[in-house]
Design goal:
- This protein is of the alpha/beta class.
- The chain has 15 helices and 14 strands.
- The N and C termini lie far apart (about 80 Å).
C-alpha cells in the first residue's frame, strides 16, 4: 500500500512537473533605442511587441507557453547594439529577437545573431544591405518584413517628381539608413527626369540646421526630402519655418505621425508627405483592430515602429506554431515557411529572408490628422537580387 501511494505521489509530481515545464515562458528579446535621441521610436516598437505578446498570452500562449520579453537598449549605436544583443542572448537566454530599429545598429548586430544562431526579425531598419547579406546572402538568421529603402523609392521618389518636385534637395541623417535613402531616392528621381540639387547629412542629435537650411534655400529647389526620425525632424521643421522656407516637404522616416504633430504644431506639420510600410488609417479590418487595441492599451494612437514591433512578435509566434517548437533553430526554420497576413501586408520571406509587403504613402492634413493617400502591395521587381549582386561585386 505504501509503495502504491509512493508511486501515485510520484506520478502526480511528474504530471505537475510536466505542466510546469509546459508553462515555462518563451524568452523573446527586444533590442532597440530605449534611451537617447531615438528613444521615442524604440519604446514605441517595444510597446507594439508587448501588445502582441499580451494578446498571444491571453489566448493561451504559443504551444501552451506564455511569451516573456527581455528588452535591451542599443541607443541606436552600433557598438551598443553588439553589447545589447550579446546581453539578451547570453544572460536572458532568448530564443529569438526583434530589433534593432536603426540600420547601422542592425548591420552591426547581424554577425552576433549568426554566431550565436539566434534569429532576428528586423522590424524597422530599411537599409537594403541588411537583406542583401541575409538568407542566401550569407546570414541565415536575419529576416525582414518591412521593405528596403530602394523599394520605397520606386513608389515615393517617383511620386515626388509627379507632384512637381523636378528639382529637389536632400537632408538626411548620417548613418546607414540615411545614406541608403539618399542613394535610392536620387537614382529614382533622376531616372524620372528630376534633378537632385544637393545632398546634405547631419548627425543624430544635432540641433542647429540653420546653416544647411540656408544653403538649401539659396538653391531654391521645388522640394526637399528629409530622412529624419521624429525628434530630429521636429527641430529641422521648426528652423525651416523660422527661415520662411516654402518648398514641398517629403519625409522618409518618422515625421508623419501624431507625436511629430504634437512637437511642431499643425501649422508647421501640414502638407508633409511620408512613405513607410505602415501608417494608420489603412482600410483593412486587421489594421482597424490593431489601432483600436493599441489605443486602448497605451492611451494614444500607434505610430510606424509600434506597428512594426507588433508584426515582429506575431511572426515569431507564427514560426513557433509552424515548427511546433520554440528552439532558435526551429524558429528560424518556421520563419522560412511563414505566409501570414499582417497589418503591413502579406509576409512571406524570399531566399534573402525579405518579405514583399506594402508601400504606404500618408499626408498630414491642415488640421493635423494623418491620412493614408496610397497603399501599394509591392511585388519583387524582376532581376532585383541580380542587380544587387552586381552592385556588391563592384
Amino acid at each position: 500500500m505504501t509503495k502504491l501511494l509512493t508511486m501515485g505521489a510520484l506520478s502526480i509530481l511528474m504530471v505537475l512537473g510536466s505542466v510546469a515545464r509546459a508553462a515555462e515562458p518563451i524568452a523573446i528579446g527586444y533590442i532597440g533605442p530605449l534611451t537617447g535621441s531615438v528613444a521615442l521610436l524604440g519604446n514605441e516598437a517595444l510597446k507594439g511587441a508587448t501588445l502582441a505578446a499580451e494578446q498571444i498570452n491571453a489566448a493561451g500562449g504559443v504551444l501552451g507557453r506564455p511569451i516573456k520579453i527581455f528588452a535591451a537598449d542599443n541607443k541606436c549605436n552600433p557598438a551598443e547594439a553588439v553589447s545589447a544583443t550579446r546581453k539578451v542572448i547570453t544572460r536572458d537566454r532568448v530564443v529569438a529577437a526583434i530589433g534593432q530599429l536603426c540600420s547601422s545598429a542592425t548591420l552591426a548586430a547581424m554577425p552576433i545573431h549568426e554566431q550565436e544562431k539566434v534569429p532576428l526579425v528586423v522590424e524597422t531598419s530599411t537599409n537594403p544591405l541588411i537583406t542583401v547579406r541575409a538568407g542566401v546572402g550569407g546570414n541565415k538568421w536575419v529576416f525582414r518584413p518591412n521593405l528596403p529603402d530602394d523599394i520605397n523609392a520606386t513608389v515615393f521618389a517617383k511620386m515626388i517628381v509627379d507632384l512637381g518636385g523636378k528639382t529637389a534637395s536632400f537632408l538626411l541623417t548620417n548613418d546607414d539608413w540615411g545614406r541608403g535613402v539618399g542613394a535610392s531616392f536620387k537614382e529614382v528621381i533622376e531616372k524620372e527626369g528630376g534633378k537632385v540639387l544637393s545632398l546634405d547629412y547631419y548627425d543624430e542629435g544635432e540641433t542647429n540646421f540653420l546653416s544647411v537650411l540656408t544653403k538649401i534655400r539659396g538653391l531654391n529647389p521645388n522640394a526637399m526630402l528629409i530622412a529624419a526620425r521624429t525628434a530630429s525632424g521636429a527641430v529641422i521643421m521648426k528652423q525651416y519655418t523660422e527661415l520662411g522656407m516654402k518648398m514641398a516637404i517629403f519625409n522618409q522616416g518618422d515625421m508623419v505621425n501624431e507625436q511629430f504633430v504634437k512637437l511642431v504644431g499643425k501649422d508647421i506639420a501640414k502638407g508633409i508627405l511620408g512613405s513607410e510600410s505602415w501608417y494608420p488609417g489603412v482600410d483593412d479590418p486587421l489594421n482597424k483592430k490593431f489601432e483600436a487595441d493599441y489605443t486602448a492599451r497605451w492611451g494614444y494612437e500607434p505610430i510606424e515602429p509600434s506597428a512594426y514591433g507588433y508584426v515582429g512578435m506575431q511572426l515569431i509566434a507564427e514560426a513557433i506554431r509552424l515548427s511546433q517548437s520554440a528552439t532558435s533553430e526551429a524558429i528560424r526554420d518556421g520563419l522560412t515557411r511563414v505566409n501570414l497576413k499582417t497589418i503591413a501586408g502579406q509576409v512571406k520571406f524570399d531566399e534573402h529572408n525579405q518579405a514583399w509587403t506594402w508601400v504606404v504613402v500618408a499626408k498630414i492634413t491642415d488640421d493635423g490628422r494623418i491620412v493614408t493617400i496610397k497603399s501599394v502591395q509591392v511585388d519583387r521587381p524582376k532581376g532585383y537580387w541580380e542587380e544587387w549582386e552586381k552592385k556588391t561585386k563592384k
